[in-house]
Amino acid sequence: MKVLVIGGGGREHAIVHTLRKSPKVEHIWCAPGNGGIAQEAECVDIKATDIDGVLAFAKAAQPDLVVVAPDDPLALGMVDALEDAGIRAFGPRKDAALIEGSKSFAKELMRKYGIPTADYAVFEDSAAAIDYIKAQGAPIVVKADGLALGKGVTVAMTEEEAIAAVKDAIDGGAFGGAGARVVIEQYLTGPEVSVLAFVDGVHLKTMPSAQDHKRAYDHDEGPNTGGMGAFSPSRYYADTIEQVCMETIFQPTVAAMAKEGRPFKGVLYFGLMLTPKGPRVIEYNARFGDPETQAVLSRLQTDLIDIFEAVIDGKLDEIAISWSHDAACCVCMASGGYPKAYEKGKVIEGLDDVTDSFVFHAGTAVKDGAFVTNGGRVLGVTATAPTLPAAIERAYADVRKIRFDQAHYRTDIGIK
Ligand code: AMP
Ligand code: GLY
Q: Which of 70, 146, 336, 390 could pair with 385 as two cysteines, CB 3.0-4.6 Å apart?
């Protein structure tokens, strides 16, 4: 089989690396890919959001399967465009990707189908939103409705902060069109767990649980990032909780989407908070998480192609998916300054000294035969081991061998 993977981060490197293990895969392209992906696939210089460019390339190259990994092309309808041209694609169609692309859509779906989540209200008018905040009091959470690069959420400890977030989003246009509407929701507390699931429109098979670390610095301090590391499994996600999530959240969500005429096919990511009153949905993503995927796919034992095919054909119930009992830890090495301004083009040294981890590339390029930094998140150093502490230890032993100017990483991935 020939496969085209869309995207160019650590998540896409993990997908490409996992697909390479399949005896069925003979060629992989990745658009646009990155320096590390180029070691395992043929990179094609097309932006992940360029639907016309991807479609033209796919029509010419005739891949047997296109895997659309990032949120933006899914929300823009890349899977629809490919399928309508007769090309097999993995990922939700545009009307199903809305579960991530519009928080108000997701909240209304949960309210309608009784899926547990934080209480909320939706506003397009800042004065009404501010009245609501004053009536509810703080802490309270303000979320831009649309895709905002993971930066659209303000967990406000005071009314002033919440009001400022509303003004920025609705009146200030801080997130463009994505913030013209805001969801204001009840502040919840409890450990956060990510559960990703393969969904074929009707059936769902969950992957092992994971946790990510969104803040830039140790002890969950500093600004929010795309994710500074991840590990799998979560300590908090006990079998009894899994059962509750399956019955009250996972299956009902898949059934609700089908009932709404938006059958979901692809990877559905449940961002959960395990509150004292039970698990609640914090967010849905319509795709593999980044960097959770680097940790989770490191544990996959089944051929990923067989899973992708079963999802597309609606036959997920007919295959067994097995996972290693090992734990996995992914430590992201980022450019100094990330998530704010950072420099690119720093030479990365020490990659050949890595012994016990696999290094997924998130933002790298090859220049004069050497890997250089080319993004905010640069590498995801990922190790597996029989226990989580051992996986953490292995990953960090390798992280310490890798050097580039102003490299930054958290030293507490896996310890929460
Ligand atoms: P998101 O960008 O949707 O992943 O949200 C970013 C982070 O905001 C989440 O990982 C949570 O830590 C926090 N958050 C989102 N919604 C709530 C909520 N209702 N209560 C408390 N924290 C929240
Ligand atoms: N790590 C969170 C996400 O992929 O959205």
A: 390
